[in-house]
Amino acid sequence: MKDRVAVVTGGGTGIGRAISEQFARAGAKVVVNYSRSRQDSEDAVKSIQSKGGAAIAVGADISKQSEANALMDAAVREFGRLDYLINNAGWSQRVPHAQFDDLTDEIWDRVFDTNLRGAFYCVRAATPHLKKHQGAAIVNIASVAALMGQGSSMAYAASKGGMVTLTKSLARALAPDIRVNAVLPGFIRTRFAGWPDSAFDDAEKITPLRKLATVDDVAMATIFFAGWAMGTTGETLVVDGGMAPLGPALG
Fold first, then answer.
1. Fold observed for domain 5-246
2. Predicted TM-score of the model (pTM)
3. With CB atoms counted within 10 Å of each terminal CB, which end of the chain scores lower, N or C?
């Protein structure tokens, strides 16, 4: 992976930051994308650079095709190539699933524009660059919400279900040049969607492994798909401490 180039959308916070740092540790040059979290992304870049890595922060609202194009162009302009696209950027707002009237058009639009449409825009912008290099890969960060119909809102679960389907469609469309896979994190301690600490504590008690997966667990799964799973495309990998495949722990 040394000297290869990765774009990580939403790469300055939470799962995205862990992915950015993991790719940098593996020798890749990293483009840390942000839409609103500029300071966090610049801090992530400084952390990578302090350890001898190469990284830049690039602001872009990937829900707009023109800005997704500009993001990929910036990566190639700075580092000369593009090998990996990690579609991690996401947005949600907590809305209890039974409260239909609270799930407004504005929430639906922002969730799908960021989580699904934005991922596709980035793929469309990155594909001409990725096809130039053997071993190129796309990894989509979806969610176990796609499988379980749970999560911060019904719109969020639907958007992540769409991302899983999009992963399979892209894997077919881009083969044999570009591998496309998805990582499905479970409930992970980040500031995403503003979950209280008590929610994480309760989930940990019933998770089969008796611990929640971490941002580093997700980052390791992501870099596996990007750099080592050369015979795999169209696949999904759940990283959630066993909850989705096994159900709640008993006893």
1. Rossmann fold (3.40.50)
2. 0.94
3. C
